[in-house]
Every structure is written in structure tokens, then in C-alpha cells.
RNA sequence: GGAGGAAUGGCAGAGUGGUCGAAUGCGGCAGUCUUGAAAACUGUUGAGGGUCACACCUCCGGGGGUUCGAAUCCCUCUUCCUCCGCCA
């Protein structure tokens, strides 16, 4: 949700930026500004009425004290009348405020200057590519076949226990998974991100805080009995730590990392692209989250990009970085870089990380602010990124590292796995 | 799950129907003093809306109600504490 004050003076600039998303924001912007004006008028009117009512009540108290019961009773009528009036105004005000809120929820974040205009993923800009595409042996297999061959992952067993998209990791597969989580967490911690363990279920307020609600309700698993949601990403619990928080400027920047399983209904997904580990309902991810002074948030974003690059390079996985175009940019993001690893056996790029600056968009919903000295609190900027999502990294490792009838383990992982080869 | 108690400003803690956004203490900030610091003293110190700036309005866990008037009374929800039960 964009802060109102950014909309009041810049409607034209914002509309131009929104065009890059393929969204004509002009109608909704003018609606918002009108509702804002209406809301303020009603508020002023209500405030005046309440001020009158308050002073009448005060006077009644005084009159009673000085024994002038008659005058007091006369004033009560005035007061009652004002009360009825204020109730009506209150209702009109609530209606206007709700309508305003609703419209604000519909407006996505303003794309950053760097965001290219574009329709969909084909318009994303490749800004960086690293590593050699490995030439695989003739009999190279996709990861789902490798997983079966070496008994690393059992997809059918997951179907039996839960359903499609809930794999069971076994033996060295499970161990490799755990090794990756530990390696990622250690790597992030060394870079200054504090490790957290957070709840995997969140309440409604948290869902609204990071913007999963009300729009993406259908994408989350819901525990209706207790009105809780299974988290689709650690971003939700971690960022909500800061809901309704006023930080001291000296506390910034804040950097957290957390491993969690992620649960996504992925309603509407189907086809070959969802085979194996490519798309799951439950998967593991290590996330990094930052809270920044607005003046530094784009340096922070660059820092996160560099960080994820280092992580992928340490695993020697060929990757490229995309700057998402307006049409592919997430609702809440101002600028996003996607990382894709090349899967040689599938001959396609797999998204393994998404690094975004949300500027004040999330902070506004969260009421996450910071204060410098005695100044008024200001909205902070939030950023997050995957470092990294496990399944497609695992897929990339299995496929790119297959050689001589086995799978080699990258050097940096050997201390974590305790073995250097799967065969 | 059962029984009882509680929820007030950054923290502690007064306040049981009228001028209470709320005593007091601690903490924070500014100043006096000091070579500097500490101590002491003085002042200041919640958030949101609104205004050029004031005024003014809202908020004492959330929601609803009683009343001319609610932190204070009533209903309800949530959370926390104590005791009992169950339990990794």
C-alpha cells in the first residue's frame, strides 16, 4: 500500500511509471485523491461537531457542580442532538475511509526508474550472466530421474502421504537438503544477517502486513479452525516482526536470515514445467530480509544482489540475473532482480532467487517507521531476497554435477554433507 | 481443557463516572554547573488525523453498549499470569 502523501503531489509522474506495468492508474489515482479529499472534509466536520459536544459536556459538569441543574438539563438536549449528528458523520467517515483503503489496496508499487516497460517475462532484461553451461554426457538425466535412480527423493511417497507437490527426501537426498540449508544460513550469517527461527503459521494481521492478504488469499493454505495461514515464505513472519514498530535510526540497517519451509497452493499450475522439483506445494527456502534507511535502500539492494551472486558462484552453478520488467514485477515491489540457474539436463533456466526493494510499500501497511532524534517517525524501506530457495538449486546441482554415473558434490558443501559423491 | 486474576505512555506504576492524554518514579533528549564526565538542579519527552502555523479531534489490549459525559460501569473477543488436568 502506497503512502497517501506520495500520491498527493505526484499523480502524473506515478501514472507514467505505472504505465510500465501495463496499468493505466489514472482512474484509480483520481478516485483515491477524491476519496482522500472527501474523507478529510468529513473528518473536519466531525471534529467540529465533537468539539462542540465535548465543550457542552464539560459545561454540564460545571453547572451540576454549581447547583444549576435546570440549565444543565437544557444543555443536555443540545448535547444529545450533537451526538446524533456526530454518529451520522462518523458513519459517513468510516465509509469514505474504507473506500479509500480499498482503492489504495488495489494500487501496486511504483516501478523504479530502472524497471523496463514490458508485458511479461520475455521482456525482462538480462543484466548479467556467469559460468559455463556444462556439456553433459549423452545419457544425462533430468533431476527427477536422478532422484529415482539414487533414491534421493520419492515423489510418489509424498503423494501417498499428502498429495502431489509434497516430496519425501531420503538418505543422501535428505542429507544434501539439510547441508544446503546449513550452508546458506552460515553464508548469510557471515555476511551480517542474524539468524532467526520463526513461526510457520501466521495470523490474519500478519497476512495483511506483508500484502498476502487480501489479494493472494487463494495462494495460501489456511487453517480455518484457528484462522491461521501457513506461510508461503519466511518474508511474512520475519517482516511482521516490525509491524507497528518505531525503530531508532541508529538501529538501522537490520538484517535477518531465516530458514523455513514454504507452503503454496499454486492453484492453476500444471504441465511439464511443474515436474519433479520445479514447482512444489511445500519447499524449503532460506530468506534474507533487510530494513533500511530510505536513503540507503538501493545500495542495500545492490549488496543483496552481490551477496546472492557470491552464493551461486561458490556452488559453481551457471546463472543469470534478470531485471524484471513492469509487467512481470510483483505487486509490492519497486525493483526486482531474479536469479536463474541453468539446468543443463532440462535445458532451461530455473528461478532460484528473487531480490526486491519494496521501498515504503510494505512499511506503510506494517506501520514500520524509524525516528531520528526527536523528529517525526518516517517510514522505513524493506527488502528481501531468497538466499536461496532449495528445490531448484538441488535440481541444478543434481543435473549439472552428474558425471561418470554418479553425482559430484560441490566442494563447499562436502563439510556439510560428509560425502563428496552420490553413486 | 477447567477455575481464578490481570491488561494504562519506552519501562515501572497511580487513577473506579466530569476539565485525564492521564500523577509519580525510572529511562531518553536539551540546558545550568564542570577542563570534560558523573552527580545535582531546570526544562522537555506517546501515536495518528487536521492546520501555513495554531486551534481542534481520536486513541488507556480489540470490538460493541450504557451515559449529556467512560481509563473508570456493562457485554464480548484476544492475550498474559496463577492453580489443576494433559503433553514433546
Written overview of the protein:
42% of the residues lie in helices and 22% in strands. A hairpin with a 4-residue loop joins β6 and β7. α1 packs antiparallel against α2. The protein binds one RNA strand of 88 nucleotides through α2 and α3. Keywords: Aminoacyl-tRNA synthetase, ATP-binding, Coiled coil, Cytoplasm, Ligase, Nucleotide-binding, Protein biosynthesis. Its EC number is 6.1.1.11. InterPro entries: aa-tRNA-synt_IIb, aa-tRNA-synth_II, aa-tRNA-synth_II/BPL/LPL, Ser-tRNA-ligase_type_1, Ser-tRNA-synth_1_N, SerRS_1_N_sf, SerRS_core, tRNA-bd_arm. GO terms for molecular function: serine-tRNA ligase activity.
Topology overview:
Blueprint: H1 4-19, H2 26-65, H3 69-106, E1 125-130, H4 143-149, E2 153-154, H5 155-161, E3 168-169, H6 171-190, E4 194-196, E5 201-203, H7 204-209, E6 222-223, E7 228-230, H8 235-240, E8 245-248, E9 254-263, E10 282-292, H9 297-314, E11 319-323, E12 335-343, E13 348-359, H10 361-366, E14 368-371, E15 378-379, E16 381-389, H11 390-400, E17 402-403, E18 406-408, H12 414-417, E19 421-422
Parallel strand pairs: 4-9, 8-14
Antiparallel strand pairs: 1-11, 2-3, 5-7, 6-7, 9-10, 10-16, 11-12, 12-13, 13-16, 14-15, 17-18, 18-19
Helix pairs in contact: 1-2, 2-3, 4-11
The structure holds one RNA strand of 88 nucleotides.
Subcellular location: Cytoplasm
Pathway: Aminoacyl-tRNA biosynthesis; selenocysteinyl-tRNA(Sec) biosynthesis; L-seryl-tRNA(Sec) from L-serine and tRNA(Sec): step 1/1
Pfam family, one: tRNA-synt_2b
In short:
The chain has 423 residues and is of the alpha+beta class. It is 42% helix and 22% strand.
Amino acid at each position: 500500500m502506497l503512502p497517501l502523501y506520495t500520491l498527493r503531489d505526484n499523480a502524473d509522474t506515478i501514472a507514467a511509471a505505472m504505465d510500465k506495468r501495463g496499468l493505466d492508474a489514472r482512474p484509480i489515482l483520481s478516485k483515491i485523491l477524491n476519496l482522500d479529499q472527501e474523507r478529510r472534509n468529513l473528518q473536519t466536520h466531525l471534529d467540529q461537531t465533537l468539539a462542540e459536544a465535548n465543550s457542552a459536556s464539560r459545561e454540564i459538569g460545571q453547572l451540576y457542580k454549581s447547583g444549576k441543574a435546570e440549565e444543565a438539563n437544557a444543555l443536555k438536549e443540545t448535547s444529545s442532538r450533537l451526538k446524533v449528528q456526530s454518529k451520522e458523520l462518523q458513519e459517513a467517515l468510516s465509509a469514505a475511509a474504507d473506500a479509500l483503503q480499498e482503492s489504495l489496496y488495489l494500487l501496486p508499487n511504483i516501478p523504479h526508474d530502472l524497471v523496463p516497460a514490458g508485458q511479461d517475462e520475455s521482456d525482462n532484461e538480462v543484466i548479467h550472466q556467469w559460468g559455463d553451461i556444462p556439456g553433459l554426457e549423452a545419457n544425462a538425466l533430468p533431476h527427477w530421474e536422478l532422484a529415482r535412480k539414487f533414491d534421493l527423493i520419492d515423489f510418489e511417497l509424498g503423494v501417498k502421504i499428502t498429495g502431489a507437490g509434497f516430496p519425501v527426501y531420503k538418505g543422501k537426498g535428505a542429507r544434501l537438503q539439510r547441508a544446503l540449508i546449513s550452508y546458506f544460513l552460515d553464508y548469510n550469517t557471515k555476511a551480517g544477517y542474524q539468524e532467526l527461527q520463526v513461526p510457520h503459521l501466521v495470523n490474519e494481521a500478519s497476512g495483511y502486513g506483508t500484502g498476502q492478504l487480501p489479494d493472494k488469499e487463494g495462494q495460501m493454505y489456511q487453517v480455518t479452525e484457528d484462522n491461521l495461514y501457513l506461510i508461503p515464505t519466511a518474508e511474512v513472519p520475519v517482516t511482521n516482526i516490525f509491524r507497528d514498530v518505531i525503530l531508532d535510526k541508529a538501529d538501522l540497517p537490520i538484517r535477518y536470515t531465516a530458514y523455513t519451509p514454504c507452503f503454496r497452493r499454486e492453484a492453476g499450475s500444471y504441465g511439464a514445467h511443474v515436474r519433479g522439483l520445479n514447482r512444489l506445494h511445500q519447499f524449503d527456502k532460506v530468506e534474507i530480509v533487510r530494513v533500511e534507511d530510505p536513503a540507503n535502500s538501493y545500495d542495500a539492494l545492490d549488496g543483496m544482489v552481490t551477496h546472492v551472486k557470491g552464493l551461486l558462484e561458490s556452488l559453481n552453478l551457471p546463472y543469470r540475473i534478470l531485471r524484471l520488467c513492469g509487467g512481470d514485477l510483483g505487486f509490492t515491489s519497486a525493483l526486482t532482480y531474479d536469479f536463474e540457474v541453468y539446468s543443463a539436463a532440462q535445458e532451461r533456466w530455473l528461478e532460484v532467487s528473487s531480490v526486491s526493494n519494496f521501498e515504503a510499500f510494505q512499511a506503510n501497511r506494517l506501520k514500520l517507521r524509524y525516528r531520528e532524534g526527536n523528529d517525526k517517525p518516517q517510514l522505513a524501506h524493506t527488502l528481501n531476497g531468497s538466499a536461496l530457495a532449495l528445490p531448484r538449486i538441488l535440481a541444478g546441482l543434481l543435473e549439472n554435477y552428474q558425471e561418470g554415473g554418479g553425482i559430484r558434490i560441490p566442494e563447499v558443501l562436502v563439510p556439510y554433507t560428509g560425502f563428496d559423491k552420490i553413486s
